[in-house]
């Protein structure tokens, strides 16, 4: 399957954050037993997250970063 609008997407991820150039800290993590599922293309997740997933195939791995706004 290729991720696109109207597709049910199930992913595993880990979310980290850093502040003032400190090392990254784990904020949240999913697992195979408790993945994150959503319907793609409806703005239910962060726009940058959805953009990073767009066009990915089952099994693809990726990283992306979102900068903080001051």
State the distance separating the first and last CA atoms.
38 Å
Structural class: alpha+beta
Range of strand content: 15-25%
What is the number of beta strands?
4
Main pleated sheet: 2 strands, antiparallel
Percent helix, as a range, is: 10-25%
Question: Count of helices?
Answer: 1
Would you tell me the overall average pLDDT? 92
Name the shape in a single word. Answer: globular
Architecture overview:
The chain has 70 residues and is an alpha+beta fold. The protein has one helix and four strands; from the N terminus they run E-E-E-E-H. The protein has one helix at residues 47-53; strands at residues 8-11, 14-17, 25-29, 36-39. The strands form two sheets. The chain has a two-stranded antiparallel ribbon with strand order 1-4. A two-stranded antiparallel ribbon has the order 2-3. A hairpin with a 7-residue loop joins strand 2 and strand 3 (25-29). The chain is globular and about 40 Å long. The N and C termini lie far apart (38 Å).
Key phrases:
70 residues, alpha+beta, two-stranded antiparallel ribbon, two-stranded antiparallel sheet, 1 helix, 10% helix
Short description:
This protein has one helix and four strands.
Secondary structure blueprint with pairings:
Layout: E1 8-11, E2 14-17, E3 25-29, E4 36-39, H1 47-53
Antiparallel strand pairs: 1-4, 2-3
């Amino acid at each position: 399957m290729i991720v696109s609008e109207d597709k049910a997407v199930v992913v595993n991820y880990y979310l980290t954050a850093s502040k003032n150039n400190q090392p990254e800290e784990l904020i949240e993590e999913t697992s195979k037993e408790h993945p994150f599922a959503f319907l793609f293309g409806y703005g239910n997740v962060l726009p940058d997250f959805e953009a990073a997933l767009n066009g990915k195939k089952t099994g693809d791995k990726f990283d992306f970063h979102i900068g903080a706004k001051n």
